[in-house]
Amino acid sequence: MTHDDDTEGGRFRLALVLTLSLIVLVFAVAAATAIGDYRIGLRTVFLSVTNELGLTEAAIAPIEQSVVWNLRLSRALVAALAGAGLALCGAILQALLRNALAEPFVLGVSAGASTGAVCVIVLGIGAGGLSLSLGAFAGAFAAFALVALLSNGATSGPNHTILAGVAASQLFNALTSYIVTTSGNAQQARDVMFWLLGSFGGVRWPDVQLLLLVVVTGLAICIWMGRALDAFTFGDEDAAALGVPVARIRLILFAVTALLTATIVSMVGAIGFVGLVVPHAARYVVGPLHLRLLPACTVVGAVFMVIADIVSRVITAQQTVPIGVVTALVGVPFFAIILYRARPQA
Amino acid sequence: MRITTFLTCGTVALSLAGSAAFAGTSYPLTIENCGQSVTFEAAPARAVALGQNSAEIMLLLGLKDRMAASAFWPNEVLPELAEANRAVEVISVEFPTLEAVLSHQPDFVAAMLTTLLGPDSKVAKRADFADLGIPTYLSPSACATTLDAGDAYGSRGDLWSMDQLYQEIEELARIFDVTARGQEVIADFKAREAALRAQFAQDEDLTFLFWFSSPSPADDAYLGGGNGPSGYIADVLGGRNAIQTEADWPALGWEGIMAADPTVMVVAQVDRNRWDLDRAQSKIDFLTSDPTVSQMQAVQAGRIVVMSGAAMNPSIRTLYGAEEVAAQLEALDLP
Question: Would A3 be classed as within a structural domain?
Fold first, then answer.
């Protein structure tokens, strides 16, 4: 909890958190690969994975091998990457906007994604050629562009950006409602909601590859700018006084978070609370320095999401439940604890 | 060449004679479905139906013993199919998971909506099954949406008809090698549709309002739109839909509904139990007790009829809904 500098203790704590989290992550992914509606023995699960990796050539029913490899493992990895990406975005935005409540969707990205998806489903823009994911991605980026425009590029203060995000969210939510009520029907509205609520049900290996690329690139850029992010904590003017190119760094990092969030939303829908809660949790353990906070957030976010996905599959067998429901159920009590512990000391 | 032609003609004549005018399916059977070629090596024995309409068509075709499971049931099953449906496991009344579908070891999957089976579905893509050698079939009514997204489904310039359903019944019957039974079902449906049309003469002044549901009495009501299945039901019964929107599911406030002033109020019984006004009885209670709404001519004259909400979706249930309304119309004192 101490705001220590690069002390031995701080580094040790980071190493401990990273090692423990990575071990937990491996076990969580393994558990996610073994658990499911289709009853498959542990031995078959293990052999399915080794078969696909070319290590073994065991005789396994193709349907079971496909369930393990194409459905479960790819899903677990996308969950881990999405959790990592959202947590990373949350940490970046909390630093840039100097607001403890900042999270990826504050930039109106999720509302924009809804509008994009509705345009494709209801209005038929792109008529089949444009997929839902691309529509959502375009919408998410349009929202981000609007926020950037409303907040005068990257030059204005953090509150300005949050207000612009709220305004953009309202605008895009209104657009979505307008399109659905005027030209949609009940079934389509339901389709859109189902699609947007967040689910790992539809993901496959190409999604893993794309997300891996985006998350790793994003993490690298953020860590590269980690020290500059620390300076933002003191305010834009102090950061500028320390020689940090405030406007440029803010724009680059906003773009990175928008890209990450838009990719994740267009792939698995809007999943709340991970981006809000995980950075706070990680900050309590490894402190506020971003060179430590960002790696810790990434791994803890991954673990959180894989476990949340397992819970969402176990509590309701045989049907898809919005993952956002589970992350909120776990996230809200956690958030309450943070609020309680962060109360002003009398 | 001539001999072959002669032989072919002979074979056709023989099989025509042998199966009462309908040839059995010869496998491998390849059909064009929603832009894809699907090949069947044999008649399916473990089919999974994704969606109520797909399941009910299979049950109508007498295929309960060849169904492994079904999923996605927005409404109760058709009463005359309830007995047969008990033999088929329901995976979930909501969207199922792909893994749960695969755990039934299906050799055929038929789906009613693109959200259940399609490129943007969170349940499954057709390739997921094709990779495992499992053929799939998507309802022609559903893939009209992807080909002409929005317009074919969100709103209609022309009145909906049962034709795409007949195509679906015919193709499913061919896939399962029950062509004769399929033609029976289609002939039965067409005869029933014709009987209804014969029974009710066209009446310019007869209008129907189809109330699907409302979140609360104060909210706008969800109605069956002009050219959708509701409009079709009104047309078969000699009238027209009081709501002339092109949207399939318009929402309208009570002032607008009173302005439309329908001759007959059709209140839907929606089985999902999401809102109190899903139930037909709650709708009737509201219509008869609200001081303003109860002044409508349809309510004053007691012209309120109950219909299953399933009929308002484009499905086989639409015809059953028309019959349900028809039976109650006879007892009414129409102006």
Answer: no
The Cα–Cα gap between A76 and A29 comes to 6
Mutation site, B98, B109, B126, B148, interface A, largest A CB count within 10 A: B98
H-run or E-run covering B308 = strand B304-308
**Which candidate, B269, B298, B195, places its Cα nearest to that of B238?**
B195
Is residue A166 a part of any domain in this protein? yes
Q: What's the rounded Cα separation, in Å, for the pair A281 and A338?
A: 8
Nearest to A63 among B102, B121, B212 (CB): B102
B105-151 residue pLDDT tens = 999 999 998 878 987 787 888 999 999 999 999 998 777 644 343 44
Rounded mean pLDDT, B296-304: 93
What backbone phi and psi angles, to 5 degrees, belong to B259?
A: -65, -35
Query: Could you give the maximum distance between any two Cα atoms of chain B, in Å?
Result: 81
Bond into B28 cis (ω within 30): yes
Take residue B4 and report the two structure tokens written for it: 């072959």
Among A108, A107, A121, A123, smallest CA distance to A254 is for A107
Strand, coil or helix: B176: coil
User: At residue A319, what is the residue type?
Assistant: Q
Q: For residue B161, with 0-12 CB atoms within 10 Å meaning exposed, 13-18 middle and 19 or more buried, which class applies?
A: middle
Regarding predicted confidence, which is higher, B93 or A341? B93
- Given this model, what pLDDT does residue A341 score? 74
Task: Determine the structural domain holding residue A250 and report its residue range.
Answer: 8-341
Instruction: Specify the CATH architecture of the domain B21-191.
Output: 3-Layer(aba) Sandwich (3.40)
Q: What is the pLDDT of residues B183-232, one digit of tens each?
A: 999 999 999 999 999 998 888 899 999 999 888 888 888 888 777 889 99
Q: Which residues of A touch B (CB under 8 A)?
A: 36-39, 62-63, 66-67, 70-72, 120-124, 126-128, 131-133, 181-188, 191, 194-195, 199, 201-202, 313, 317-320
At residue A6, the pLDDT reads 54
B67 Cβ contact partners less than 8 Å away, ≥ 6 residues apart: B46, B47, B48, B49, B55, B58, B59, B87, B88
Indicate if B201-329 has the same CATH topology as B21-191: yes
Which residue has 């086989």 as its token pair?
B316
Q: Are A97 and A250 in contact (CB under 8 A)?
A: no
| Regions of chain A where pLDDT drops below 70 | 1-7, 123-130, 152-157, 181-196, 317-321, 338, 342, 344-346
Q: Is B153 close to A185, i.e. CB distance below 8 A? A: yes
Q: Which of B153, B212, B225 sits opposite A188 (nearest CB)?
A: B153
CATH superfamily of B201-329: Nitrogenase molybdenum iron protein domain (3.40.50.1980)
ipTM field: 0.74
How many domains is chain A built from? 1
Residue spans of the domains in chain B: they are 21-191, 201-329
